[in-house]
Amino acid sequence: MRVDERGTLAFLEAPEQVSLREYDVPAPEPGAVLTEVVRANVCGSELHIWSGDHPLIRDGVLGHEALCRVVALGDGVETDYAGTPIEVGDYVVPAYFATCGHCAQCGAGRFRLCENAYKYWSRPPGREPHFHGTFGTHYYIHPDQFFYRVPDGIDEGVAAAANCALAQVLCGFDVVGVSWEDTIVVQGAGGLGLNAVAVAKEAGADVVVIDGVAGRLDLAADFGADHLIDLTELDTIDERAEEVQSLTDGLGADVAVEVTGVPDAFTEGIELLRDGGRYLEMGNIIPGRETTFEPGVMTRKSITVESLMRYDPWYLGKAIEFLARRAGAYPFEEVLDAEFPLEDVETALEWSRDRSVARATLVP
Ligand SMILES: [Zn+2]
Ligand SMILES: [Zn+2]
C-alpha cells in the first residue's frame, strides 16, 4: 500500500521551542494504521511537556489526544481492539501509549504499567514513521497501540479528549471504587476533574468540587456537581474540611480525587476524608514538587491511597462507549472553548498556559 503524500507535524526542539516540519507520509506496516488527524486537543500534560516539566518527555513530536480518520490499514488490520470492523475513512481514537504485551508488567497483567509504554510517543520526527504525535496532519498507530472506532453522533472535540482524561478517570474510579453511597470530593475542576464529576454522577455519588476559578466551578455545576467549594471564599484547609464534614454528617468524604497537580492538595485530601476513606491521586506528576505531610494522620484515619498514570488500554474503549451512550447528559463540548489551525500551535499552547482558554483544540 502506498501513500504518496507529504504531511506536517509540530516538533518540540527544546522547552517552548516548536517548529513545523514536513515529512513523507509513511505506508503502514502490517498491524499498523495510518491516520489523518481530525482534531487534537491541548491537555495539561501537553503543557508540562512543552514547558520542560514532564517527568519523562523533553522533546519530540508533540500531541497525544486526538480524533483521527483512517487513511490506510496495514496488512492484517480488520477490526479495532473491541472487534469492531474497521475501514478506510472510519473515525478512530488511539491510546497515546503502547502496550507491548512482552514486558514483565504486561506479563503480570499490569498493562497500564507497560515498561515500553512510551516507546513511540514523542520520538524525534526524523525517525520513521515520523508522525509520533497528534499535533500534525497525520498520526501513525503502531501494531501494539490500542485504538477504537468512534461511532457516529459523538461530538468531534469530545471524542478527541477520550484517550486521555475520560479513559483515565474511568480506570481510576474502578481502581478506587465509587458507588451511589459515596460522597466524593473532586479537587480541581480542570479536564480530569470535570470528567471525574461526570463519572461520579453516573455512579450516583454525591459530588463536592473544590476549585478557585469561578468559570471552572460553573462548569463543574453544569456537569452536575452537588456542592461547590470556592478556594477564594473558604481559604484555609480547616474551613474546607469543616465544610466537607457539614455535608457528610460530620464524617468526612468517602472518596477524594486529586486532579489539581498541586502537592499541597494531597495533604488536604487526606484531611477531607473520613476514617477508612479512599484517596485517588492522579494530578501530581511533576518531579521535585513537595508538600509537608504528616503520615500519622493517614495511618490514624486508615486511609487507602491509590494512584495512577495512564490507564489499562481497554478503558479507552469504555470511554468511547460512555460517550456514545451518555455524552448527551453532560456538557462535554463546553470544555473545549477555542479552535486553532495547526500553524498556530504555539499560540494554542501559550494561551492554554496563560489560561486565556480552558481547553484548546487544533484542527490541521
Ligand atoms: Zn509491556
Ligand atoms: Zn492528555
Automatic annotation (TrEMBL):
Database matches in CDD domains: MDR_TM0436_like
Pfam families xref list: ADH_N (PF08240), ADH_zinc_N (PF00107)
Protein's name according to its UniProt entry: Threonine dehydrogenase
SUPFAM superfamilies in the cross-refs: GroES-like, NAD(P)-binding Rossmann-fold domains
Keywords: Metal-binding, Oxidoreductase, Plasmid, Zinc
GO BP terms in the entry: protein tetramerization; small molecule metabolic process
Ranges where the Enoyl reductase (ER) domain occurs: 7-362
Molecular function as annotated in GO: adenyl nucleotide binding; anion binding; metal ion binding; oxidoreductase activity, acting on the CH-OH group of donors, NAD or NADP as acceptor
Alphabetical list of Gene3D superfamilies matching this protein: Medium-chain alcohol dehydrogenases, catalytic domain, NAD(P)-binding Rossmann-like Domain
